[in-house]
Amino acid sequence: MNTPIYLDYAATTPLDRRVISVMQPIFENLFGNPSSLHRFGQQAETVLEEARRSLAENLGAQPREIIFTSCGSESDNLALRGTALARRQSGGHNLIVISPIEHPAIQVTARQLAAQEGFEVKTLPVDHTGRIDLGRLEDYLQQNTALVSVMAANNEIGTLNPIREIGKLCHQRGIPFHSDAVQYGAHLPINVGELQVDLLSLGAHKFYGPKGVGLLYVRQGTPILPIQTGGSQEFGLRAATENVPLIAGMAKAYQLAREEYSQRSNHLLPLRDLIIEKVLAEIPDSQLTGGDLQNRLPNHTSFVFENLDGNLLVQVLDSEGFACSSGSACKTGDPAPSSVLTALGYTADWALGSLRVTLGKDTSPVDVDRFLDALPLCIQRAREAK
Amino acid sequence: MTTLPAGTRVVVGMSGGVDSSVAAALLKEEGCDVIGVMLRLWSDPGTQNRCCAPDAVVEARQIAGQLEIPFYVMDAKDAFYKGVVEPFINGYTQGITPNPCLRCNRLIRWEFLLSRARALGAEMIATGHYARIEKQPDGLVRLLKHPDQGKDQSYFLHVLTQAELGKTIFPLADLFKPEVRQLARDLALQVAERPDSQDLCFVGQGGNYRKFLRKEAPTAFKPGPILDPEGNQLGEHSGLAFYTIGQRKGLGISSEEPYYVIHKDPASNTLVIGHSVDLGRSEFSTRPVNWISGEAPVKPFHADIKIRYQSRSVPGLVTPLPGQGVKITLTEPLPDVTPGQAAVIYQDQVCLGGGEIRQEEL
Ligand SMILES: Cc1ncc(COP(=O)(O)O)c(C=O)c1O
Fold first, then answer.
1. In the CATH scheme, what is the code of domain A17-256?
2. How confident is the model over A340-380, as pLDDT tens digits?
């Protein structure tokens, strides 16, 4: 087997060396608590606030609108729980509106808010690629809508949503709008004003930053309550001593993403399109899932293959040195069709055979060629075993 | 141990236990390209299958990590249900006492695993079983007992074919259990010392298969008459599934001389009991028989017969019958010849094959 090739950048990305260089001295020398009065604390606070300023600037936001969290999931939780509860408290709003292709961090949270807090949850209609049907959105923007949450880009099928248009409609009715941009932000520039979002989630490890840190953008004036209470860090929205090195690493990683978006996309798009073209042409009974080439993350390809165990395909590919993922895969060998594909109407004999191949800035054309050379046989072997 | 070219890809069925972990470690040490696989088996809803319980998965994954080999859990639930659980339920409905481990070995741990191994580009599989495979000059393989007679598992492997054994490695073929444990310690493998269990793996904690069967095979739990060999009714039984051949306790019939279960007749739902003189059987038939050599003998021959994993083998005459079966005549009667269990045929160290003890001959 050759050196394994990593094709799962939607799951996570390796740390950029330039990010490590920023974090290393902070880990080593800057241990102070940013809340402390003394100079140790002040030094740490300086680094923390510089990171906040830099991220705010790169997002078109104010520094005090940036809330640091531990990950994308936590940002989603804070947005959904914090705003739903605040909206109910202030105005009795009781309806949470989400899309059917949200990350579990949103879906499961909404379900729990329904079960334990008595919220009503409604799911927006989408087309077969997972894009929101804007024409029908207004039906869901009701008197009692507490907030709307629609992801900017889907992790499993790469679909981009018309965030700006959704935001505009929400704003006309004064309804807070959250978008999970954990995948989107890794590939496409964000300006929170243009995107018309009130809340937006990011996670650093999707853009070559460290794991264990994320942020939630909260537009000034958006109703929100803390879900983790304690000290008054993060403007009272998230109690915890800040993880300064990781936060500085995230700021650096986002700065680099910002500077290199177009360069990275120019590198990724032809590789992405080549994979989509070849797979559909060469693999019998295959379909592209999610967004078309215009409405799709630049690094993202995803497919379903009829009559194939996606879990097994990922294992076969791994044994041949290609690290990919599948929406139905699960490390405990207990596959279930992905809820996203099921929501889009795929039957189990297709949905169980999903494959996601996501590229990154370090993916070379040779890597892609090798993958495309190996895939047909891997699929054939997985199908024969079924 | 083996004579595989370096880099040969081998799939090892891993359980997280000491035997399969050491098997994987030995192959890795030999230079094989080892892939660890655990099969996800069906279990009664709401219970965990012991062979792939979450703890076992974590342990096996941890061992694989220590050995720096890839490890995959593969879904075999449907194949296991259809191939093992359903026949188990049906067997009880028909009044026999099936041994699901035998079907599991044949259909799941070999046939299914080999198909997955092929998909992973591996020609060979390996397990932590205690048995030996010997390649002969003519290219055929023989299945031999393990030198550690107390651990020998060839009884469970008599269901395998030339094609399957030819693609199998038993890395523990020459090792005694204490040596295997020592190897695990030497390699600092964090293996779990789980006691060997004879319980059914798919009915939840404690292997309470009667509770499971009550739900799945209700007709096996219908009360019916208890008769003596002459046909006199002595009492009522609470369902044939509660009884096995040779059982003495729990019959609820008082008598100076103890009674034993000697026969179960599902057609009339009767349980026949008798005294020890009525109990033993020395003649029964077995069908179909799997001959490991791939060729059925035509003439009668003497052999040693084992009718349960735990029981000692007994000499007997094996007479081929038309249509894949044999008649077995033991030199001494055994009290627990049980339809559904396997009679396995040995000559000295060699396991020739075996088959299921039939119901109708009793
Ligand atoms: C769209 C989306 N939302 C949320 C998350 C959760 O992010 P994290 O793993 O940082 O909690 C992920 C990543 O898995 C994601 O892709």
1. 3.40.640.10
2. 999 999 999 999 999 999 999 999 999 999 999 999 999 99
